[in-house]
C-alpha cells in the first residue's frame, strides 16, 4: 500500500503519518503531485493537514474535498510545539 503525505520529511504531516501508519511505504509529495496521484489512483491513502493551530483552515481543505471518491478515514489531532531559540 502506498501512503503519501503532504510535505518534506520531518514536517508535521510526516510525523502524523509515522504515528498513524508507521515508516513503511511513506512517500512525501508536494501538493499538486499528491492530489494528482490520489485522483489517478496511484496511491491508496493520503495524509493532508486541513486545519492547524496557527492559521486555522489550511489551503488544502477544498482540494481534499473536491477529490473524486474521497473518504476521510481519520482525524488525527497532533500536538504541536514551537520554540523560539537564539544563540
Automatic annotation (TrEMBL):
Residues 2-87 form the Prephenate dehydratase domain. Signal peptide: none annotated. PROSITE patterns: PREPHENATE_DEHYDR_3. Gene3D superfamilies: Periplasmic binding protein-like II. This is Prephenate dehydratase domain-containing protein.
Amino acid at each position: 500500500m502506498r501512503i503519501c503525505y503532504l510535505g518534506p520529511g520531518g514536517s508535521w504531516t510526516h510525523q502524523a503519518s509515522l504515528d498513524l501508519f508507521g515508516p513503511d511505504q511513506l512517500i512525501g509529495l508536494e501538493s499538486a503531485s499528491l492530489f494528482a496521484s490520489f485522483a489517478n489512483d496511484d496511491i491508496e491513502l493520503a495524509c493532508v493537514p486541513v486545519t492547524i493551530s496557527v492559521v486555522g483552515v489550511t489551503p488544502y481543505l477544498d482540494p481534499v474535498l473536491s477529490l473524486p471518491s474521497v473518504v476521510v478515514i481519520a482525524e488525527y489531532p497532533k500536538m504541536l510545539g514551537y520554540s523560539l531559540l537564539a544563540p
